[in-house]
Design a protein that fits this description.
Length: about 550
């Protein structure tokens, strides 16, 4: 056992003394040490209940003959970090999480790992660590939040966090009162769990299940459901089986399982951030995945589930309808069915007994919302290395759009202009210098898109950025434009009034400028001056690569 490095031999007597101090008995020295990598936090709603999940996991490990040790890593709440400088730290926390898990696991010589994530960057950070360490591992998330219930004269309406962000735009445009907003904010997030829609956290938890690193139900069983605790105990028991059979993350996470994850992503209309994170996981696994492959998968994958923010259903509805295994059963002709899973079964075996119990939530492939997937990668002279759009959440009239550019060099500038009512129908709002290096940190920008939606302008105005959008974003919002402005990408050459052409069905994002005009404009630009010159963000900006390769560290 790897843990013998800290518990066997006379020279390890000091180590054993320290282990006795934390509760280990002499008999425990002959048992596997299992690291329970928790991310509990009292400020993150998706993580506030994770101590209970960890207790269930530890009970499962004990029952399987292992010795569990709960340790912790950091967690950022993207919703609380949104629209202020704190969001610059969200994506960078992903690399810190991966690194901190590596440090904890190696320093204490754990034999196997159980990961307990839930929210946005914690899931991919832990997946990256799992692949990097390649110790037997399993994931058990905290589960999704229930949707809120808002009563009105029209009956009961389901609401969630994205309802709040859009409500800000409604108040600004006079469509809602401040009192109504206050009532909504008290009801939208009714308890613990990852925010209720198919936003980034739930997308990544569902894709963790789809790629085989979580047991059936991992992505959809609600946080407050007793089944979540039962699944956590089962995960603790299963890690002992994985250890005994020497099944490791790289036996599960490979090109085929990543293909399955992308396919499920397209059917769900998941968050655009999933592209960034799956590329980063693939990078850790040594898998070369060109961004163009995403469009190839999207072209042949039907869009089956219209969940919030694109539709009215939430994760609890998807769970009730059959969950991820039922979605995968519908997609079985498009999946790599021989792929292995942490259940020590193939995908084919996992989905064999699943079924769809609500066709209003999970459509059939013959009755899909569209014949192509919910995410698209756009290329063109404005995005030579690609830009990402959640086309599942784009209004039909904005799938092809042409308009004059309105240029802003920060999220704050754009938000101020939108709130003031100065954005005109037909325009294309461009927010640049918000990329991985330029931000730094590639901030999510749910506030400007949601305000536009709340004002009813998401069917008239497009938004383009080298930063990111939240999974709760809807509208013609194209992010991850690469190369970014700070790296002298074409987006840095744009000026107010330039005509931008968006053609989502044909995967095009272009500006009416010649290559020569773009080159000459870029040549006249001053060198980019970093916005942050101290602390972790300075280090991050120096190390991070482009969004089109997952915004991973390079060099």
């Amino acid at each position: 056992m790897k843990s013998d490095a800290v518990k066997k031999g006379i020279e390890r007597a000091p180590h054993r003394a320290l282990l006795h101090a934390v509760g280990c008995g002499q008999a425990d020295m002959d048992k596997p040490f299992v690291g329970i990598i928790n991310s509990f936090s009292e400020i993150v709603p998706g993580h506030i209940h994770l101590r209970g999940i960890a207790e269930a996991v530890k009970a499962g490990v004990h029952s399987g003959g292992g010795i569990p040790f709960e340790v912790n890593t950091i967690a950022v709440c993207d919703g609380i970090a949104m629209n202020h400088p704190g969001m610059k730290y969200s994506l960078p926390s992903r690399e810190l999480i991966a690194d901190s898990v590596e440090i904890l696991a190696e320093a204490h010589a754990f034999d196997a790992l159980v990961f307990i994530p839930n929210c946005d960057k914690i899931v991919p950070g832990m997946l990256m660590a799992a692949v990097r360490l390649n110790l037997p591992a399993i994931f058990i998330s905290g589960g999704p939040m229930l949707a809120g219930r808002l009563g009105s004269y029209n009956g009961i309406k389901q609401v969630d966090l994205s309802s709040l962000f859009e409500a800000v735009g409604k108040v600004a445009s006079g469509q809602m009162t401040a009192e109504e907003l206050e009532q909504l904010e008290e009801l939208a997030c009714p308890g613990c769990g990852s925010c209720a829609g198919m936003f980034t956290a739930n997308t990544m938890n569902c894709l963790t299940e789809a790629m085989g690193m979580g047991l059936a139900g991992h992505g959809t069983i609600p946080a407050v459901d007793a089944r979540r605790g039962h699944l956590a105990k089962k995960a603790g028991q299963q890690i002992m089986e994985l250890l005994a059979n020497n099944i490791r993350p790289r036996d599960i996470i490979n090109k085929d399982s990543i293909h399955n994850a992308f396919t499920v992503d397209m059917a769900l209309g998941g968050s655009t951030n999933s592209i960034l994170h799956l590329l980063a996981v693939a990078h850790e696994a040594g898998i070369d995945l060109p961004l163009s492959m995403v469009n190839e998968i999207s072209e042949r994958t039907p869009y089956l589930c219209k969940l919030s923010p694109a539709g009215d259903n939430h994760l609890e509805d998807l769970d009730r309808a059959g969950g991820i295994s039922a979605v995968m059963r519908e997609l079985q002709g498009l999946l790599k069915l021989a792929s292995r899973t942490v259940a020590d079964k193939s995908v084919a075996e996992i989905i064999a007994d699943s079924r769809v119990v609500d066709r209003e939530v999970i459509h059939s492939t013959t009755n899909a919302y569209s014949t192509t997937g919910g995410i698209a990668i756009l290329f063109g002279n404005l995005a030579p290395d690609g830009g990402v759009v959640k086309r599942a959440a784009v209004a039909p009239e904005m799938m092809v759009h042409q308009g004059a550019a309105r240029i802003f060099n920060s999220e704050e500038e754009a938000t101020t202009a939108i709130m003031s009512g100065s954005i005109k129908p037909g325009e294309v709002v461009v927010i640049r210098y918000e990329g991985p290096k330029g931000g730094p940190g590639m901030r999510e920008m749910l506030t400007p898109t949601s305000i536009l939606s709340g004002m009813g302008m998401d069917k008239e105005v497009a938004l383009i950025t080298d930063g990111r959008f939240s999974g709760a974003t809807r509208g013609a919002a194209i992010g991850h434009v690469s190369p970014e402005a700070a790296s002298r990408g074409p987006i840095a050459a744009l000026r107010n009034g330039d005509i931008i052409k968006i053609d989502i069905p044909n995967y095009k994002l272009e500006v009416e400028l010649t290559d020569k005009e773009i080159f000459e404009r870029l040549a006249r630009l001053a060198d980019f001056e970093p916005k942050v010159k101290t602390g972790y963000l300075k280090y991050y900006a120096e190390k991070v690569g482009s969004a089109n390769t997952g915004a991973v560290f390079s060099g």
